Amino acid sequence: MTDSGKKNICEECSKAGIMQCGNCKSVFYCSREHQIKNWQLHKLKCNILKQQFFSKQEQQQPAAKPVVKPIEKPVVKPFEKTVQLFVYNLSSITTEKQLQEQFSKVGTVVSVFLPYSRTIKRGFGFITMKYNYSNQAQLDKSNDLSGSDEILDKLTNIINNTLNYEQQVRIIKDPSFQITPGANESQNIEQIFASNDLNDDEKAQKLNNLYIQYQKEINEKLLLIFEVETLSVIQSRLNNCSTASERVLMNIVDLITERNAFMPTIQDISIVRRKTILLTDIRKSYLDTKIERILRIKFAEDEKNEIKQYSELTEQLVRIFLNIHKGQDIGPDMIEISVSVIVQMIISQEQGSIKQNDDEQGKMEKDISIIDDEERNRKLDSFRKIINALGGASRFNLNNQQRIIDLLKSRNCVEFILNFNCENDPIAHDGKVSPQLRDFHAGIQKILKKQLNKDPIEQEQEQKSKQQEQVQEQKQSKGQEQFNEQIEDEEEQEEKDKYEKMKSDKDKREKQEEDGEE
Where does the record place Low complexity bias (predicted)? Predict the structure, then answer.
């Protein structure tokens, strides 16, 4: 029960009620005892009176104002994306901190990784960034493998306006690529060759499994895998390529050097030339020297054959050698070897030794035709690769370009090269000319035009000058020991000539003295 400020009549005794029913708020009592005494009668109508009381209260109260909720603005999510960058042409003193400060001007730098090889920085690195694109269209464009990228434009602008103007950057488009140090492949390869439980065929199979895996990797991943230690193991296990395991290992070298040749070139400060990214590691491992030695041996062996046909291994070695030396000076003797092999391949292509059989022939002929088609495509692909390598060797080196074109011209092979892998050529692969071939074609046409407009006397003088240069280069290319022996022989001959002359003069004087005395 609750107290009430109003004077009402007690339901039990009709006196002034001072206490109100706490449930219905409609009846009054003078005391607690009278409420209990009257409850048996009151409880029958208490709930009804309660409903009437509260209904009346609600009618008397003013209507509540509607609650107006604030309008929530939609949250605009930023067009953020994680971007993986490949940075190359770095100096040996570039640090991870410097790259982080430089690239943080564009976005959030998550990580920076600079790989080492024998405690020396390799001149390239990997950066993971989070970047907010300006709109959805730019974000979608960044996923296009052939499209330009907003972040790349901004980074290039920053790099061009700093002292690191030689530094270059490109975006890794493969989303599956992880910027982590590669596994120690040198141990994997060495364990296969050193195993006493495997015969050569089993070793070749295991190496071929590695080769298949390497084919699936992107170029940047191969750069991580094949550092000096791995290349040194490969070099030490390559001898004369007389075993199946060595041939598979040579296929791995072919893959590495071809992919490396298609990567961007960097500035070789020591000789002011362009070079491939892996060239320094290849030279430190002496793999380039080993490839040249094997190529000279195989070329000499093939030269002794009456058929005058170079083996597939020799063709592969030429391709590897040219890819390694992209942009570098190549000696005239090695250019002579390379062009000789390529010319023979051109002759084979022109002869069309592999022909398709007619569809009306028997099943055996059809089966042979299928094999011939595969063989023809394989040879075309091999020839295409070696011409690409030849174009790459002359692309950034005018000396190589001039020597190569002169040799091709002297053997009437220039026209075939110009028409190969282009839209008008029926044997074109896809109707597109690679950058190496495009520049190679342009270089050939430029030199031919220049030679065509030369005066005959000028051409003769230039030819003599070239012959003198070749003689000088041949002298320089000889071993130091042979050169010293030649000098010693010449000096010895001079001493003999002097002695003979002195003896002859002495005899003459003695004879004159004898004649005078007489």
Answer: 468-485
